[in-house]
């Protein structure tokens, strides 16, 4: 490819994680210079396909300053965060400290070193239980769990800093990210993953005795929750577009990242059974705390303003790539050394 990005150097916090590693791949394929900053609490060095990895924590302000002093970043993609909703209810301070306080450390360091472009990993959880779906970006921010609240707080800080300094940011609100690399090099590697597609596939592989469907009495057509599942490579492309938009001088903005339609938990489970060809046991269980009934993105803004055109709007493709990945890490446990 052409080398116009050779001069753009990007710091990716959380770049060794599931979504981060796909973003690093997308950046690397386009010749960006990449430095990953990750404490490896859940990330894996082997997931970083391009660039350099610095093992560090955002709580370590001395190291963070060293890195910013040594490197001259043009932009930061801030991905590192805890993401498990019910854990955030049990241990809110863990979430406020890592997701909010550590983000403040990073933003403050950006300002000190005049790094004035930031892409932030936000979430549909900022909306809580939306009045209407698909949900637009101007819907009220009423998170119903500390995870979502911690992301709202970072968005607020980014907004306020963008008023007080020449700093610009793009907040991308992810809906339900799933799937894996087309070539099965990277994917969801957490052993304790809680996300529906990963847990279903691991149940198909016999790692769990049954899949729990959390709640069958939601106000949805089949009583199970509806989510907008988006392939991780399409989400990674959104980050590239956001970065290029900031580089061209675009102003701060917030975008939903989803396909604009949803699938119910029951429908996802049915498709997982179809794609894998395995009829695993399902248990109908109580609701899980903190789950809104339906979350579907209105993503017309990012399509229109950034020209985002998803390539993998296909639940079976999402499941198939994740399935290939799950089989690989099962038969080759050293995939991520
Ligand atoms: N879910 C489920 N069983 C599981 C995992 C998830 O029924 O083993 C449901 C969950 O209650 C929610 C939906 O699947 O309604 C998506 O949950 P996930 O954890 O994948 O993502 P979230 O929407 O919480 O970010």
Written account of the structure:
With 337 residues, this protein is of the alpha/beta class. 38% of the residues lie in helices and 17% in strands. The chain has helices at 18-29, 61-70, 85-90, 92-112, 146-164, 196-204, 232-247, 265-276, 300-306, 315-331, and strands at 9-13, 33-38, 52-55, 75-78, 117-123, 168-174, 176-178, 211-214, 226-227, 229-231, 253-257, 263-264, 282-285, 294-295. The strands form four sheets. A seven-stranded parallel β-sheet has the order 3-2-1-4-5-6-11, with helices on both faces. The chain has a three-stranded mixed β-sheet with strand order 12-9-14. Helix 2 runs parallel beside helix 4 (92-112), helix 6 (196-204) packs parallel to helix 8 (265-276) and helix 8 (265-276) crosses helix 10 (315-331). The radius of gyration is 19 Å and the shape is globular. The mean pLDDT is 96. Uridine-5'-diphosphate (UDP) is lined by residues 85, 176, 194-196, 199, 211-214, 225, 227, 265, 288, 291.
- What is the rounded distance between the termini? 30 Å
Radius of gyration: 19 Å
Query: What shape does the CA trace take?
Result: globular
Most strands sheet? 7 strands, parallel
């Amino acid at each position: 490819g052409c080398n116009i990005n050779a001069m753009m150097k990007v710091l990716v916090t959380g770049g060794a994680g599931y979504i981060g590693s796909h973003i690093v791949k997308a950046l690397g394929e386009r010749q960006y210079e990449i430095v990953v900053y990750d404490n490896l609490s859940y990330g894996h060095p082997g997931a970083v396909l391009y660039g350099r990895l610095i093992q560090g924590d955002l709580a370590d302000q001395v190291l963070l300053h060293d890195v910013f002093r040594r490197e001259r970043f043009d932009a930061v993609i801030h991905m590192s965060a805890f993401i498990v909703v019910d854990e955030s209810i049990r241990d809110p301070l863990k979430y406020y400290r890592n997701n909010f306080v550590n983000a403040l450390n990073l933003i403050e360091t950006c300002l000190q070193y005049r790094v004035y472009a930031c892409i932030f990993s936000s979430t549909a959880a900022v909306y809580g239980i939306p009045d209407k779906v698909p949900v637009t970006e101007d819907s009220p921010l009423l998170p119903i769990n500390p995870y979502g609240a911690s992301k709202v707080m970072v968005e607020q800080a980014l907004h306020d800093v963008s008023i007080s300094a020449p700093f610009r940011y793009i907040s991308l609100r992810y809906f339900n990210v799933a799937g894996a690399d087309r070539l099965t090099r990277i994917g969801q590697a957490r052993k304790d993953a809680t996300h529906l597609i990963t847990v279903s596939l691991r149940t198909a592989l016999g790692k769990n005795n049954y899949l729990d469907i959390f709640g069958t009495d939601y106000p949805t057509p089949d009583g199970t929750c509806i989510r907008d599942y988006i392939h991780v490579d399409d989400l990674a492309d959104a980050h590239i577009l956001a970065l290029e938009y900031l580089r061209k001088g675009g102003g701060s903005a917030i975008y939903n990242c989803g396909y604009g339609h949803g699938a119910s938990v029951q429908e996802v489970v049915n498709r997982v059974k179809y794609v894998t060809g395995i009829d695993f046991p399902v248990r109908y269980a109580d609701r899980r705390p903190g789950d809104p009934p339906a979350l579907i993105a209105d993503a017309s803004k990012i399509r229109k303003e950034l020209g985002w055109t998803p390539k993998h709007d296909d639940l079976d493709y999402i499941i198939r790539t994740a399935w290939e990945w799950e089989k690989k890490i099962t038969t080759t446990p050293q995939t991520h050394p």
